[in-house]
Amino acid sequence: MSVHEPPELFGPEFTRDPYPTYAWLREHSPVHRFTLPQGMPAWLITRHDDVRKWLADPRLAKNLERFLPEEALPSPQLRDVLTRNMLASDPPAHTRLRRLVAKVFTARRVQSLRPRITQVTDEVLDRMGTAGETDLVDTLGALPITIIYELLGVPMRDWETFRKWSVLGSDEQSTGSEEFETATEALKSYTQGLIADKRVAPGEDLLSDLIVTRDNDEGLSDDELVAMVFLLLLGGQETTISLIGATVYHLLRNPDQLDLLRKEPERLPAAIEEVLRYDGPAMNASMRFAVEDIEVEGVAIPAGGVVFLGLGSAGHDPEQVPDAERFDISRSGVKHLAFGHGIHTCIGSALARLEGEIAIGRLLDRYAELRLAVPPEELNWRPGMHFRGPVELPVVYRAKPR
């Protein structure tokens, strides 16, 4: 890519491999102005130190309704579902919402899920059998799906309804479509009924605890509870599915690293962290808005300007990570931004890490042979501005002798 050639953001080539474009931007246009599909200008910040600083700077806000024009907002009947959550809120609303969720979504609760996560993983691998070919994104995707639905207390008979919305919600191409609107309305109605049932007969699940938790005698409203369910569905499923898929993909593409991990399985947590840095499931943080005129790297962004913070680009910044383009699970002490930074740091990061570690660990422990079933260039990757990960990952596998 020449100095004078502008990068094509979010096109097919970028979707397959965004990192050469990010490298060009960090060097030549670290605060890059581009145009959103809705026709509005936006700015993409790509250098690690800038991304980290602005993730925590209150001069960038999250409230869509405060800054976006009416035509760019979700439809009025769905707006509460998509905006009344922690991710789309600013203090003091965000502070209250996060404090309420943190009361019940604790580190202890996440760790208590370890036996169940292990059990579900083993059940998934049992269904795979001793040898064959499978799409690991689909197969291992059953793990985070099962765990988040059980955590929320969703009856198994209704999982298909939740899964359909989650797939649409993570597909940025479908947002605003008639199918997306219909699925969202149906899930909103169902979730309202589920909340009403749990108010009468609470269970031992996260949603029941969210219903009864209080902060200074104030709890979550029904609209806030519905919005929280939608947020947890996306955060608890699609990003973890992508993390597991990307981890397997990069290990298979780097057999020396796979061999190292097999020989030294204690490196598994570091391997997950390296995938999060190198090719994490969140390419950009969710959009923010300048609350006043700001300047970043000499570039003026006006009040109300839409800003994207390049989490994926930050992980490849050579000023932060030596030899950043190399996938290396033996790295230590590298601090990535895959889960964000500041008040909006992902509250489910511990669960994603735990599921990733268990899924990859049990997979490698069971199968002596794992290899891609198709050339890497034939794989499809999630399109869009936010999510990153393989759409499918066909592999051939063979179990260890027992």
Automatic annotation (TrEMBL):
Belongs to the cytochrome P450 family. This is Cytochrome P450. Gene3D superfamilies: Cytochrome P450. Keywords: Heme, Iron, Metal-binding, Monooxygenase, Oxidoreductase. The lineage of its organism: Bacteria, Bacillati, Actinomycetota, Actinomycetes, Kitasatosporales. It comes from Streptomyces triculaminicus. InterPro entries: Cyt_P450, Cyt_P450_B, Cyt_P450_CS, Cyt_P450_sf. The keyword Transcription does not apply. It comes from the Bacteria. The keyword Heme applies. One of its GO terms (molecular function) is monooxygenase activity. SUPFAM superfamilies: Cytochrome P450. Pfam families: p450. Signal peptide: none annotated.
